[in-house]
Amino acid sequence: MDTENPSAPTHAKSRIPGENHPHAGGLIHEHTRHTTRFTVIGNHLAQHRSLSGLAIGLAVYIQSLPAGAPVDIKSLAARFPEGTTRIAAALRELEAHGYLRRERERIGGGRIVTRTISCNQPGRSRNDHAPHSARPARPKKSPPRPLPPVPRPSYPAPALIQQATDLLTDLRRHDRRLLFSERDTAHLAPGVAAWLERDVTPTAVRESLIMDLPSEPLCRPAALLAHRLTNRLPPLSPFRAPAPPLAASHPLQNCEGCDRAFRAPHPGRCRGCRTDLPEAA
After folding, report:
1. Are residues 47 and 118 in the same domain?
2. Which residue among 14, 83, 116, 191 is least enclosed by CB atoms within 10 Å?
3. Largest Cα–Cα distance in the chain?
């Protein structure tokens, strides 16, 4: 004889308003299970007490996008009716609470792009659940590459090096990317002095260094200037012998003996009328 299973569910009862829900005026869920095109969102985000509604909505939208989708401020402003100012403020909220990270990364060609990382569990990365030995080791930070060599002046006089240093320090007024450290300035100054030593004016040196700079951010501006100081170094000025001094030109005098004109510093007789010369003896 079959025994009755006391834990078997009874047949479903019809829902009568107010009978199964004591708080009839509250929320009632009508759930349909999703099988495609859905995103799992944690209640810590959906019910966050500090985030604004716009920030929560943007976080949900971003978490639903595929990898590689554009989520910069302009793209989001084109998608939603809120302006760029409100969207930027909402993104800052998500960054402050760990739901979003924006990192700048250098790619080929010296370009810099911004990577946006969406975190569905703030404070926990995919490596947090892996054992310590399985986590990838952090790469060691390599020392900065040395700057390329620069030309050297024949006579590095202190005044010449100081003039070159002042020229380099002034470059940031013309392009704010050309702000060098004290160490880089000391490395570049002899190269600038070599140009000044070749009778190149400071204005010409500056124009040659900053002419045709790329528009994108400069990866190593000091290295770029070191390269230009070497590759664009003008030739030495050709040697010119100093001109001989002009012979003294005396005024014209009238000879007191023959009345002919001759040049002499003082009045008197010409060479033909003078008797004190050896050939007149």
Report:
1. yes
2. 14
3. 174
